[in-house]
Every structure is written in structure tokens, then in C-alpha cells.
Amino acid sequence: MVGSVLSSLTGAVATFLGGILLSGMLTVVVARAVFGSKITVGEAWQRVRGRLLALLGFSVLEILAVLVLAGCVAGAIVGIAVAGNGTAAVIVGIPLVLGLVAALTYLYTVLSFAPVGCRAGAQAHHRLDPPARLALVRNHFWRVIGIQLLASLVAGVIAGAVSVPFSIAGQVMLVGETSAGPIVLATTLVAVGAAIRQIVTAPFTAGVVVLLYTDIRIRAEAFDLVLRTGANAGPTDTMTADNLWLTPPR
């Protein structure tokens, strides 16, 4: 059991860090592909590695913010319940929980294009003014959240289809087993399924966000004219194409 818990924690940390790295690198790849040009893995790594600490720091701040907000709501509900009024705790707790969900959804959507967010569509490649980026999302909030929810649903279905067979096989192997060998093998199968799920869905999710960012800028400020300038420069003039992403939103 200790080994299983440690394995799960290690896998979660590896997935978290790998997701940040993959999101940043895929953002660079997709952003370059918008101009019809290609980029190697080495070039993408060169452009991303200087932003990894910023990506990691912002991701940690996001997690801490969620924990603080959730802790405040849970503390308020528990405090009312401990005071001896369970009915009041339920009456106050329901709207607080609903408000927490709404607040986290709003913050996640507004920060989805933050310059250093691990889930941002432009975090590693486009270093723009944060207030302008936040305003860009707020002005198209429902469109952004709708597309992100749809993309999450599609990714969830794909992830389930990929990982469920491994989970079922692992659970079947655990039935009636008390020795370490089958338990380790079952845990390994579940971990392999989780890894394959991440490999399949992470590129899709990162691609959706960066393309959504491009689409919103095109709708909001005719950014397609700027992209056309990069496309006319030719696929070999990658420096011009990359610098066009630094054009601040209006």
C-alpha cells in the first residue's frame, strides 16, 4: 500500500511537470505552424526552457489559490456546523460551494491566456501585457469557456476510452490476490494507462487553447492581417513570424 501511494504521488508530480513542459513546447509548435512553417524539438525546447520556472511558478500559484479559496469555504461551513447549527451550515454551505465553483470557473477562464500559465495558449511563446490578455478573455468569456468545456469533454471521453481497459485489467488481476507480484503488475498497468491517456490528450488540449487564443485575437483585432504578414514573409523567415506574436492586443 505504501508503494502504491508513493507510486501515485510520483506519477502525479511527473504528470504535472510533464504537462507544463509539453504545454509550453506544443504552444511553440502550433504557433509556428499557424504560419505554415515547422520547428524541431530542439528549437522548441530552446524557446521554452527560459520560461519553465515562470510556468512552474504560475502553476503553483494557481494551485495555492484554489486551496486557499476552498479552505476558506470549508472552514466557514465547518465553523458554523461546530457552533451547533447544522441546518444553518447547510443553508450557508450550498450557496458558498456554488459560489466557489463559479469563482474558480471564472478565474480559470480569465487566466487561461495568462502569459506564464501552464494551460495558457500563449504562455511560452507570446510575452504580451497581462492586463491586455485578461481583457481579451473577458470580452469573449462565454465563447472561451464554451469551447474549453467542449474540448475537455472530448478529451475526457478519449482519456476514458484509452485508460479504462488498463484499469479493468488491473482490477481483475487484484481479485483474490495477496502476493506482491500481481499487485505490482496491476499497479503498473494502471500507471501505463494513465501515461498513455496523458500522451494522447495533452497535445489535443494544448492545441485547442493556442488555436482558441489565435481565433479570439482574429475576431477582436483583425490579427489575421498580422498573421498574413508573417505568411507572406515565407516559411523560412521564422524570426519575423515569431516576432509578430509579440504584437500587443488592442
Structure, explained:
The protein has 250 residues and is mostly helical. It is built from nine helices and no strands. The chain is globular, with a radius of gyration of 22 Å. The termini are far apart. Mean pLDDT is 74; it is low at 115-128.
Offer a concise description of the structure:
By secondary structure, the protein is an all-alpha fold. It has helices at residues 2-33, 41-48, 52-82, 86-110, 130-138, 141-174, 180-221, 223-232, 238-244.
β-strand percent reads under 5%
Q: What is the share of helical residues?
A: over 70%
Question: H/E order of the elements?
Answer: HHHHHHHHH
The rounded Rg comes to 22 Å
- Write down the overall geometry: globular
Distance between the termini: 55 Å
Biggest pleated sheet? none
Q: Quick one: how many beta strands?
A: 0
Low-confidence stretches: 115-128
